[in-house]
Every structure is written in structure tokens, then in C-alpha cells.
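so my prof wants the structure for this chain in the C-alpha cells format not the other one, which i didnt know existed until like an hour ago. anyway here's the sequence
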Amino acid sequence: MAEWQHEPLGLEVGFHDASYHDIRTWHWSFGDGATDTVPNPVHSYAAEGTYNVCLTVSNPRGADTLCREVQVLVSSAARGGGQWPAGGSVAQSFCRPVCRYLDGGGHCRL
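here's what i got, hopefully its the right format
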């Protein structure tokens, strides 16, 4: 079963595979046209926004895809109180489940 988490690092976001059941291949689609095939990629976004990120994993029995919307925000407003250097920023991202497609079924399932 496909499962993943993410961690914002500015406009870069670290993605962490949490899939289970003998995963052999990974295919990430980051929602901006870029893809990767490693289990735990770091992806750089060009701009703030909401991106539909999908991870497809496969094992000898088939494939599973989990998609979620990831909102990437970089806010200079969070620099108050001398905590951030001049020009600094803080990044946030939020995740909302979109759809889970089971291979061969084509049905949307969370």
C-alpha cells in the first residue's frame, strides 16, 4: 500500500516513503511536471502554491497510488522578533488527501 509523508524545507520539500508490503519501485509526481524514482526525494518548487503530489509504488503483486494536495507557503511575515535574518523566511506545507487509486480498478478511494 502506498503511503508517504512530507517535510517542508523552504521551497524544497522532503518526501518520505512510508509504503509497506515489499515495495520494489517508486514513482513520484510532484504536481509541477517533475518526477522522481527514489524512495525519499527532496523536490524544489519554483513558487508557492498547491501541488497535487502522487506516489505510485509497486511490488510483485501489483501497484498502488496515493495522491495528496501539498500546499507550499513561504512567508516573510513570520520573521518577527528578531528570530529570522534579514531576507529570511519560514516555509509551511499542508497536506490533504485527494484520492487513492488501486491498480486496475480506477476507482477513487481514500
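also thought this was worth mentioning. Strands lie at 4-9, 12-17, 25-29, 35-36, 42-44, 49-59, 62-75, 90-102, 108-109.
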